[in-house]
From TrEMBL, chain A:
Belongs to the GatC family. GO terms for molecular function: asparaginyl-tRNA synthase (glutamine-hydrolyzing) activity; ATP binding; glutaminyl-tRNA synthase (glutamine-hydrolyzing) activity; transferase activity. Keywords: ATP-binding, Ligase, Nucleotide-binding, Protein biosynthesis, Transferase. It catalyses: L-aspartyl-tRNA(Asn) + L-glutamine + ATP + H2O = L-asparaginyl-tRNA(Asn) + L-glutamate + ADP + phosphate + 2 H(+); L-glutamyl-tRNA(Gln) + L-glutamine + ATP + H2O = L-glutaminyl-tRNA(Gln) + L-glutamate + ADP + phosphate + H(+). This is Aspartyl/glutamyl-tRNA(Asn/Gln) amidotransferase subunit C. It holds the Pfam family GatC. GO terms for biological process: glutaminyl-tRNAGln biosynthesis via transamidation; regulation of translational fidelity; translation. Coiled coil: none annotated. Allows the formation of correctly charged Asn-tRNA(Asn) or Gln-tRNA(Gln) through the transamidation of misacylated Asp-tRNA(Asn) or Glu-tRNA(Gln) in organisms which lack either or both of asparaginyl-tRNA or glutaminyl-tRNA synthetases. The reaction takes place in the presence of glutamine and ATP through an activated phospho-Asp-tRNA(Asn) or phospho-Glu-tRNA(Gln). It is an enzyme of class 6 (ligase). The keyword Secreted does not apply. Heterotrimer of A, B and C subunits. The gene is gatC.
Automatic annotation (TrEMBL), chain B:
NCBIfam families: gatA. The lineage of its organism: Bacteria, Pseudomonadati, Pseudomonadota, Alphaproteobacteria, Rhodospirillales. GO terms for biological process: translation. Its EC number is 6.3.5.7. Keywords: ATP-binding, Ligase, Nucleotide-binding, Protein biosynthesis, Transferase. It holds the Pfam family Amidase. Heterotrimer of A, B and C subunits. Belongs to the amidase family. GatA subfamily. GO terms for cellular component: glutamyl-tRNA(Gln) amidotransferase complex. It comes from Aestuariispira insulae. Residues 25-470 form the Amidase domain. The active site is at 78 (charge relay system), 158 (charge relay system), 182 (acyl-ester intermediate). It is an enzyme of class 6 (ligase). GO terms for molecular function: ATP binding; glutaminyl-tRNA synthase (glutamine-hydrolyzing) activity; transferase activity. This is Glutamyl-tRNA(Gln) amidotransferase subunit A.
TrEMBL record, chain C:
Gene3D superfamilies: 1.10.10.410, GatB domain, N-terminal subdomain. GO terms for biological process: glutaminyl-tRNAGln biosynthesis via transamidation; translation. This is Aspartyl/glutamyl-tRNA(Asn/Gln) amidotransferase subunit B. GO terms for molecular function: asparaginyl-tRNA synthase (glutamine-hydrolyzing) activity; ATP binding; glutaminyl-tRNA synthase (glutamine-hydrolyzing) activity; transferase activity. It comes from Aestuariispira insulae.
């Protein structure tokens, strides 16, 4: 599988990273290098092998249903690049 | 009298107990060392006022007999750990000005044990790199140089600020994080000890995430004993981290018995790779001989899927990273670059905020998870990961520890390896398999290469058997008798 | 088929599937300890986890797992002993993590089926595809500033159960009946308060149309509809839109649409235009959710009698009509109120009184059955006074009004006001005789065939007894005297 410029542009948009048109081609080259390296995996026989998402061999702990957090809007907003009236603000979204 | 900054944690602990010096004196000596080592660019943020304040409190606790395990120890905190009220950057432009409203569990554990914060250590941006050349805050310089050659060398990565500062004695120890080798590889490049414990041993809460299923914090220290002491202070179950292991923390220092008689040391034959530099092979054979001399039993083992660890890692880690880094969108903290609408604001912010390597990995990660490619890449990588874990499980039937080289080379110059991202990735070839399997792994300095640069060996152990790893590392350290120091010392 | 829609070019069949998002009744959020209560100030119920601060991690709330399993069991669904949380990746202003933690390939609850009750008294099975747990997003507020949207993360991370139906519904009525039944079940078991106005329950409605017997048409998804009435309106509008579109030679586009409840129409959502590629993968911050079968058994034991079972029992034990039984079981509180009344009085009479008298008064007073001034015991007492002929049904209504106003006991009111029915035949006979004697003209007319005048005579007796005479006795006496 090999990435073309168009695919790179699509992925970049999915990842919300602006990539100037002139950078798409070289970037495709770099990414294809990495993908080429990754393709080695096809040599491995993984028939009947379950995918492993985590090495942790325990059951997930569940916490009690109690309000133990929140109630500090100032701390939540402290690092906000732009806030108003207790809200974060962003360029207007049209739904 | 030896310089205060030349003491290890264990030695400084004794000195403080014996009232030979105060925690404030120790800290002042290190604050001066931090200043004098600025050419290394190991710090992103220096925090001398905080350090003095913490040291005073340490003295008070020492006086009233309530000293902790790390009391008065001036350490560096990798700038991936969120520290309340202190700038935390992950070495990325995108976290401009970010001052967390919270303290990571690991840093809190260390402060609770009495440690003193000298500052936040430089690293590769979002811990992505093996040379500390992707930081928004500039490259870190290795205090070691080749004999007769003034070229600046890299300190390894991603915990390059931590490794350089520990090696140069500008901190007594530092925290690191290891996703594919980011503690062990820089430790090997700078002649110090770097220990990545078992996945789940140290809480990830409050650590800026790179790849959640792999990230693990650990100590970077001058010797194995310090590693045991510091890990003891860092480790422990954290109910705020669902992947944190609810397993008691043993007395790691007590594991340093100096005795490895009868211990079975596995030598994985697949780590003897084609084109492996002779010097690496030599130091590895030397390590085998040392452990054998100390009474360990050497057994050859096979980890057949070793070769595939790196390609699997370069699917899994970027995939997780592409999602973990989605939160840096200019809305709630850090950098914001305006745009005509919300989408353009996101795209401008992330284009300006992320460096080239981070972008590459986010894009690769996005691609391998995208519709139509998920099975071929991501699921395949997870299946290979399964194979790799099984390889190790089988190996533990015939050995107790595995001994391997830590890196395929000694430290290199900043310009010598970076043209090709792939060549850079190969730095982690010996460290990545254990990361995928979540195993504890330690890098111990073993000797110098022909150019006078340190080389490290790696010991890997069973899950949650850090004690055996430390015991083996301690003996290896004694046998190696490594006491060379870098050209640059604070 | 009953549900076909006539177009200009022939009949159309509507196919509807629903995804209902029900907020779990938990004190804290799914993966953080922040509160879930409705109506807090902006960002007051937000933890650092909900705001997706760097390094923050999710830890699952036990209660949300409990309620998801109970809901699954209440819908007769299979419970998956191992399920997995996955990240659904997309960028949006009110999605701080840049992904929603949801369940994708392995949801906690699998297939099942519920019965929906239709207005004609018929019922129908609707398949449940799955139920999974997921995080709610925050809220964007667009009307505060001409150029900015304001972001409130109070809802960010609140636990939702997404309940996905099979595409088994064929009309707006069926869709409405499905949501009604789902809401009833959720409220019965206490898994969700069902408060649609506060957003505790919202539905995404997938609609397509096809010629009968043809394969499925392209569907449009109507997002976030928050009332049953709106679901009806939205479906009706969307069905018409799609049929007209196709009949005019156009094509339905697969898209997300928004229902505008003010204009009563649906429109395309521009903000969701971007191609969807959610890049689901297992959340590495969490482990698989493993449930013991003993836990599932334990949860079964916590379920109350569910509306369908209760309805069947009301029909068989109390002899109620399916309609009445359906009305009485729709809310758990109503059903238990009714049962308490029926324990003291004739069950059919009780059903009539609860449905017409009590509901009517409560409605007028804007009150809920849980704060009815008339307790079920008191209503039962009142009804037994009718049954044992102490008072007539008409008097009973008067007494009931008084009870509703004052909360007094039925017997006391009857005593105080002397409303006891006169059943003493001798006393009534005397009054009847008097009236016959004083109304020769009317008696004459009656006897010459205008038997309808019996009503007038009854009225006279009631007037004199202030309505307390037993109507049966009065009728019988009058008839025998007038005809005799």
């Amino acid at each position: 599988m090999s990435l073309d410029k168009k695919t790179v542009a699509r992925i970049a948009h999915l990842a919300r990273i602006k990539v100037p048109e002139e950078d798409l081609e070289p970037l495709a080259g770099e990414l294809n290098n990495i993908l080429g390296f990754i393709e080695q995996l096809n040599e491995v026989d993984t028939d009947g092998v379950d995918p492993l998402a985590s090495v942790v061999e325990m059951n997930m702990r569940q916490r009690e249903d109690a309000v133990t957090d929140g109630g500090y809007p100032d701390r939540v907003l402290a690092n906000g690049p732009e806030t108003a009236m207790g809200f974060y603000t962003v360029p207007k979204v049209v739904e | 009298m030896t310089k205060l900054t030349d003491l290890t944690i264990a030695q400084a602990r004794d000195g403080l107990r014996a009232k030979e010096f105060s925690a404030v004196e120790l800290t002042d000596a290190y604050i001066a060392a931090v200043e004098s080592s600025r050419p290394l660019n190991a710090f992103i943020t220096e925090t001398p006022e905080i350090a003095r304040d913490m040291a005073k409190k340490s003295d008070a606790r020492i006086a009233d007999g309530s000293a902790g395990a790390m009391e008065g120890m001036p350490i560096g905190m990798k700038d991936l750990f969120c520290t309340e009220g202190t700038l935390t950057t992950a070495a990325s432009h995108i976290l401009d000005g970010f001052k967390p409203q919270y303290e990571s569990t690991i840093s809190k554990n260390l402060w609770d044990a009495g440690a003193v914060m000298l500052g936040k250590m430089n690293l590769d941006e979002f811990a992505m790199g093996s040379a500390n050349i992707t930081s928004y805050y500039g490259n870190v310089v290795n205090p070691w140089k080749r004999e007769g050659d003034d070229t600046d060398l890299v300190p390894g990565g991603s915990s390059g600020g931590s490794s350089a500062a520990v090696a140069a004695h500008s901190v007594i120890a530092a925290t690191g994080t290891d996703t594919g080798g980011s503690i062990r590889q820089p430790a090997a490049f700078t002649g110090i000890v770097g220990f990545k414990p078992t996945y789940g041993r140290c809480s990830r809460w409050g650590v800026v995430a790179f790849a959640s299923s792999l990230d693990q914090a650990g100590p970077m220290t001058r010797d194995v004993r310090d590693s045991a002491i510091m890990l003891g202070a860092m480790a422990g179950h954290d109910p705020k981290d669902s992947t944190s292991a609810d397993i008691a923390v043993p007395d790691f220092e007590a594991a340093l018995t100096g005795d490895v008689k009868g211990l079975r040391i596995g030598i994985p034959k697949e780590y003897r790779m084609d084109g492996m530099p002779a010097e690496i092979e030599k130091i590895w054979d030397q390590g085998i001989a040392w452990l054998k001399d100390a009474g360990a039993e050497i057994v050859e083992v096979s980890l057949p899927h070793t070769k595939y660890a790196l390609p699997a890692y370069y699917i899994i880690a970027p995939a997780e990273a592409s999602s973990n880094l989605a939160r840096y969108d200019g809305v709630r903290y850090g950098l914001r670059e305006e745009g005509k609408d919300l989408i353009e604001m996101y795209e401008n912010t992330r284009a300006a905020g992320f460096g080239a390597e981070v972008k590459r990995r986010v894009l690769i990660g996005t691609y391998v998870l995208s519709a139509g490619y998920y099975d071929a890449y991501y699921l395949k990588a997870q299946r290979v990961r399964s194979r790799i874990v099984d390889d190790f499980k089988k190996a533990w039937n015939s050995c107790d520890l595995l001994l391997t080289p830590a890196t395929p080379s000694a430290a290199f110059g900043a310009g010598e390896n970076q043209d090709d991202p792939l060549a850079m990735y190969l730095n982690d070839v010996f460290t990545v398999p254990a990361s995928l399997a979540g195993l504890p792994g330690i890098a111990v300095p073993a000797g110098l290469d022909s150019k006078g640069l340190p080389l490290g060996l790696q010991l890997l152990g069973r899950p949650f058997d850090e004690e055996t790893v430390l015991r083996g590392a301690h003996v290896l350290e004694q046998q190696a008798g490594f006491n060379a120091k870098p050209q640059f010392l604070a | 088929m009953a549900n076909l829609i006539k177009g200009n070019t022939g009949d159309w069949e509507v196919v509807i599937g629903l995804e209902v998002h029900a907020q779990v009744s938990s004190k804290a959020k799914l993966f953080s300890g922040a509160a879930t209560a409705f109506g807090a100030g902006p960002n007051e119920q937000v933890s650092l986890v909900d705001a997706a601060m760097p390094g923050m991690l999710p830890v699952i709330n036990k209660e949300c797992v409990r309620q998801a399993v109970r809901t699954g069991l209440a819908m007769g669904c299979a419970i998956n002993l191992k399920s997995v949380f996955a990240r659904k990746n997309y960028f949006y202003a009110d999605l701080p993590q840049g992904y929603q933690i949801s369940q994708y390939e392995l949801p906690v609850v699998g297939e099942g089926e519920i019965t929906i009750d239709l207005e004609d008294g018929e019922s129908k099975q609707v398949g449940i595809e799955r139920l999974h747990l997921e995080q709610d997003a925050g809220k964007s507020i667009h009307d505060q500033d001409p150029t900015k949207s304001y972001i409130d993360l109070n809802r960010s991370g609140v636990a939702l159960m997404e309940i996905v139906s099979k595409p088994d519904m064929r009309s707006a009525d069926e869709a409405a009946a499905y949501v009604t039944k789902l809401r009833s079940i959720l409220r019965y078991i206490g898994a969700c308060d069902g408060n649609m106005a506060e957003g505790s329950m919202r539905a995404d409605v997938n609609i397509s149309v096809r010629r009968p017997g043809e394969p499925l048409g392209t569907r449009a998804e109507l997002k976030n509809i928050n009332s049953i009435r709106f679901i009806r309106q939205a479906v009706d509008y969307e069905v018409k839109r799609q049929i007209m579109l196709i009949e005019d030679g156009g094509e339905v586009v697969q898209e997300t649409r928004l229902f505008d409840s003010i204009k009563g129409e649906t429109r395309s959502m521009r903000s969701k235009e971007d191609a969807h590629d959610y890049r689901y993968f297992p959340d590495p911050d969490l482990l698989p959710l493993v449930i013991e079968s003993a836990f599932v058994e334990e949860m079964k034991g916590t379920l109350p009698e569910l509306p369908d079972t209760k309805k069947d029992r009301f029909i068989s034990d109390f002899g109620l009509s399916a309609y009445d039984a359906g009305v009485l079981v729709s809310e758990r509180e109503t059903a238990s109120y009714y049962e308490a009344v029926a324990a003291k009085a004739d069950p059919k009479l009780a059903a009539n009184w609860v449905i017409s008298e009590l509901f009517g008064r409560l409605n007028k007073a804007g009150k809920d059955i849980t704060d009815s001034p008339v307790s079920p015991e008191n209503l039962g007492n009142l009804l037994s006074l009718i049954s044992d002929n102490t008072i007539s049904g008409k008097i009973a209504k008067e007494v009931f009004n008084e009870m509703f106003e004052t909360g007094k006991d039925a017997k006391d009111i009857v005593e105080e006001k002397g409303l006891k029915q006169i059943t003493d035949t001798g006393a009534i006979e005397a009054i009847v005789d008097g009236i016959i004697a004083n109304s020769p003209g009317q008696v004459e007319q009656y006897r010459s065939g205008k038997t309808g005048l019996i009503g007038w005579f009854v009225g006279q007796v009631m007037k004199e007894t202030q309505g307390k005479a037993n109507p049966g006795v009065v009728n019988q006496l009058l008839k025998s005297k007038l005809e005799g």
